[in-house]
Amino acid sequence: MAVKILFMGTPEFAVPTLEAVIEAGFIVVGVVTQPDRPKGRGRTLRQSPVKAAALAHGLEVLQPEKIRDAAFIAKLTELAPDYTVVIAYGRILPLSVLSIAKKGSINVHASLLPRWRGAAPINYAVTAGDTVTGVTTMLMDEGLDTGDMLLKRELTIGSTETAGELFERLSALGAQLLVETLNAMEAGTVEPEAQNEQEATYAPTLKKSDGRIDWHKSAEEIANLVRGFSPWPGTYTEYKGKLLKIHAGHVAAAIREADITVNTPNDFKDAAPGTVLSTSMGAVTVKCGSGLYEVTELQPQDKRRMASADFLAGHRVGIGERFGSVE
Fold first, then answer.
1. What count of other Cβ atoms lies within 10 Å of the Cβ of residue 59?
2. Whole-model pTM above 0.85?
3. What CATH architecture applies to the domain 4-199?
4. Domain boundaries, given as residue ranges, for the chain
5. Residues 175-211 pLDDT 10s
6. Which residue from 45, 110, 200, 238 has the least number of CB within 10 angstroms?
7. Percent of the chain, pLDDT > 90?
8. Do residues 197 and 114 lie in contact, with contact meaning Cβ atoms separated by under 8 Å?
9. Phi-psi bin for 260: left (phi > 0), alpha (psi -120 to 50), beta?
C-alpha cells in the first residue's frame, strides 16, 4: 500500500527532502508552507522555495496565515496522511496538527539532538566551535524539538567551513535520513529514544544585532562567529563611525615586529582589543581579547563586498586605529 505524506517546510533547506520523498515513491498528498512574503526593495511577493518545488511537481500547496484555523485543520484531516513530515516549517505546531497523521509526525532537525534545539542549529554549531554535528529525525510533540529521537547521522564540520556551506551538506544528509526513517518506520525496525534533558542546548532565532563583533573575545571565538553567521545574518564592526561588515578572515599567526610601526600607540601586548596592528600582505590584522584576527574580506557601509587588499588600496587604515566602539 502506498504511504501518504503531508509535507510541511518553507526554506531551501527543506527542498532536497521534499524531492527525496517524491523520488522514493511516497505519495505526497499536500504541501504546507509559509504564505508568500514581500521581499526586496520593491517589496514584491515571493513564494517560498518549498512552494516553488511543490508546484513544479504539480502538488497541492496550502499556505495558512493561522496554523490553528479550523478550515485548515479540516483540510488536513481530509487529506488523511499516514505521516506528516516537518522540516524548517517556521512555526511550532499545535497538537491539532500533529495528531492528524495516522502514524505520527516526523521532524528532520539539523543537529544531533538534544544539542542545539531551536531555529538556528547550524549557525550555533559553527559559532560554538563544534567539530561534529549532524541530522536527527524525531517524533514530534508540542515542545520545542523535544520529541523522541528516531535516527541520527553525524557530519564533521570543517575547520574553515561556514554555516552556509554546512547548510548545503546537512540539507542533503537530512533528505537521505528522512527516507531511511520512513522506511524503518514502515518496517518496524526503529525504536524511538527519549532525549536527555540534561544535555539540551538551545539555538534561538538569530537577529542582525547578534552579528556585532566584540573584539574583547578571543580570535578563535571571532573567527567562529564570522563563519557561523555567514551568509546570514552576517558580522560587523564600526570603523570611523561607520558600519563595516566583516565577511571573512581567520585566526592570524604572530605578526612581525616590522609590521608594528612607530605610529602604534601601544606595543603588541598592551594594545586594546580592536586595535589594528598590521595592514601588510593585503589583510587587516586586529588585536582581540586574546590572539589576533586577520580580516580578508569586508564591506564598507554603502559599498560592495571586497577583498581587504582592495579596501586598503582606497582607504588609509593607520596602525593603531580601532575597530568597534572605543571604550
1. 17
2. yes
3. 3-Layer(aba) Sandwich (3.40)
4. 4-199, 208-314
5. 999 999 999 999 999 999 999 999 999 999 999 999 9
6. 45
7. 87
8. yes
9. beta
CB atoms within 10 A of CB 73: 16
Q: How many residues in total does the chain contain? A: 327
Would you call 189 exposed, middle or buried from its count of C-beta atoms within 10 A (0-12, 13-18, 19+)?
Answer: exposed
C-alpha cell at 92: 511550532
CA torsion sign for 140, 142, 148, 152 is positive
Instruction: Dig out the grid coordinates for 78 from the structure.
Output: 481530509
b/e per residue, 133-157, with b = 16+ CB within 10 A?
bbbbbbbbeeeebbbebbbbeebeb
**What is the structure's pLDDT at 271?**
86
Asked if domains 4-199 and 208-314 share a fold, the reply is: no
Task: Give the whole-angstrom CA distance, residue 104 versus residue 81.
Answer: 9
Give the pLDDT band (50/70/90) at residue 253.
confident
The sign of the dihedral angle between the CA atoms of 25, 29, 32, 37 is positive
| pLDDT tens per residue across span 285-308 | 999 999 999 999 999 999 999 999
Phi, psi (rounded to 5 degrees) for 108? -105, 115
Q: Are 54 and 18 contacting, i.e. CB atoms less than 8 angstroms apart?
A: yes
